Amino acid sequence: MSPDVPRILFADQLGPHFVEDQRVIIPEVLGPFRRRRYHRQKAHLILSALRHRAAEMGSTAELRRGETYHEVLSGVDASIVNPTSWGLRALVQDLEAGAAVEVLPSRGFVASEEEFGKWAGTQSTRLLMENFYRHQRRETGILMAPGMNGEPEPEGGRFNFDHDNREAPPKGQETLGVAAPWYPTEDEIDQEVREYLDALEDSGDVSFLGADGPRLFPATRAEALDALEHFVTTRLATFGPHEDAAMQGDWAMSHSLLSPALNLGLLDPREVLERVEASYHQGAVDLASAEGFIRQVMGWRDWVWHLYWHLGADFVDSNYLGHREELPTWWSELDSTDIRSRCVGHVLDEVRTRGWTHHINRLMVLGSFALQRGFNPRALNDWFVDAFVDGTPWVMPANVIGMSQYADGGVVATKPYTSGGAYLNTMTNYCGSCAFKPTVRVGEKACPMSAGYWNFLHTQADALRGNHRMSKPLGGLTRLSDLEHVLEQESSRSEY
């Protein structure tokens, strides 16, 4: 297609690797804000990023505003990098029917869809993330070293150092004591976006979740590069050991906070991986921290993207356990006012305040609680998409439907990821200030997570019995002397 034909850039295609030397059209549409209830800070970040990109490109960019994508893009001859959702790919097909549209292969991930398909075709049994991750390491050469027989081998002799990255929070500390995260400085575009969103809310036309607040994540390429460099030079070294821990007084800990920038397309994952690998080779960080972060980006992030397409559009409606409970209003509204459970209340407060909380809080607090209470997995998935600044349609199905809620019956995860209060008491510092006690299952001090865990196992015993990884937990039910009281209590529990 002629270089004079513009490139359409969606909101997750805002980095330089999505466009060649050509004009661009950037659609900014209101419809998604009407159809979905986004977190206020998610809406702000998206609009700020779109408008900053248009401003940076000047006369070569046209920011088209309207109600729908069809309204602003129909009849436009253009090239498009294949977008990241089933909905937008259907839109592209509609656009092709009325204009000359060149659809380019997707970008923004380490492996292409074609490469993943070839790998998946070589797997004789189930697709395992660890196998895919090791394949990615071999294909890219990242964290690989020359071996004795001439074949590349993983640095340190192992592909996975997860066992070294499971330390509990340091005792006697309110925070990890690491360098503060990188923060952006808002500008006139942010002020313009804030006034626009205020007007939408004041009109009653659109309603947002959560609280407004200063923008915390990059909205430009330059900001994203600054955030990456700050993380690598000041926080990566302490990332690994406590990546599976959580602390009340430290919302960011040593996490990179780069997922929003990656999901907006402001960073390419390969440049992130190469920068982290370089830091390891320079001796600035140890192998466990470097490998743990690289596994998150090149392993898990790529994995959930490819599973989104591999498992199909209907995967998000999977409901193996038959969970139907509606999300409670206090949950969906991020209102922890009456929540006495410290872990749940605190994490909901983090989401309300920032539109973000790290992966342990998502999986082992919010996800575990939702699984134990039988929340409808599709509704929970949609809530995660809307409530998190880095929530996208492709990110959440494998994370929520699969990993968190086991609603796929074990396609993504080998077991349900839920636990009693003992795990949280070990890996977080939430329990010490909680009204409930992690060791108590029945009565006024009964921990909702501990009692909820055993109630879940009993309720879903038949569905889980064929999973060999669940044989020991299910066996524990027979040794629980107060099981009958736990079940009776949890059947009518309304206080958390």
* Total of DSSP H or I helical runs spanning 4+ residues: 21
Numbering strands along the chain, what is their spatial order in the largest sheet? 3-2-1-4-5
> How much of the residues is beta strand, in percent?
5-15%
- Please state the CA-atom Rg, rounded to the nearest Å: 23 Å
CATH H-tier superfamily of the largest domain: DNA Cyclobutane Dipyrimidine Photolyase, subunit A, domain 3
At the first level of CATH, the class of the largest domain is Mainly Alpha
Please bin the fraction of helical residues: 40-55%
Q: How far is the first residue's CA from the last residue's CA?
A: 59 Å
Shape: globular
Order of helices and strands: EEHHEHEHEHHEEHHHHHHHHHHHHHHH
| Biggest sheet statistics | 5 strands, parallel
- CATH structural fold name of the largest domain: DNA Cyclobutane Dipyrimidine Photolyase, subunit A, domain 3
